[in-house]
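Notes to self, HAD family hydrolase:
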Amino acid sequence: MPVLVFDLDDTLYPELSYVHSGFRAVAEFLSPLLGVPAEALAAGMIAEEATMGRGEVFDNVLHQHGRWSKALVGACLRTYRHHIPALALYPDAERCLTRFSSQPLYIVTDGHKEVQARKVTGLGLAGRVRHAYLTNRYGRHRAKPDPHVFDLICRREHVAPGEVIYVGDNPRKDFVGIKPLGFRTVRIMRGNYAHLEADEAHEAHRRIHSLDELTEDFVTSLCTPPRELAA
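result:
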């Protein structure tokens, strides 16, 4: 069986659940400072993120209550990044990891290395995959689409790229760096990029809408050379 490698955010769990978990942690931190119930602060941050994005959520909540300072914004960011998140896998991800539990499984994910590590821990994935590669541990230049950590997986498993399947959701970066090297790719159509159309270079070899579609027959056929299929 091929080596299966998964993206993390919006592939194995809904990334927005981490964002909301972080907002609740920041709300608990700010509540005694601002004299506002944590539930109200969290609800306000979640509502702003839904309409305006998350870029200035902490700045805005502090401005609204007359307590903005660079130091306090920094404290909010640290609280957000260092909190222990309450997360759960997508149900189809849980089934998929169970289905392939006897196979070599890996995670490759970009982002703040401490944040991503806490996500892996919070989801209980450390004991279910052979390794979770957090690309920022190797330097930001090793983030996708750079193929560095995928090459590490090949060396670790003693396999060729054509025996490795990567499942991700973001066609802007997940596949374009590894497809030319022979890695096989699957795009799951959910999350922020579900409706993004990509050119051939950026699109995966296959699309799926649920990890339930990732069956043994599916992965075997994806790694079978075309000449063998034709035969």
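- The chain is about 40% helix and 10% strand.
- Residues 26 and 96 are 33 Å apart (CA to CA).
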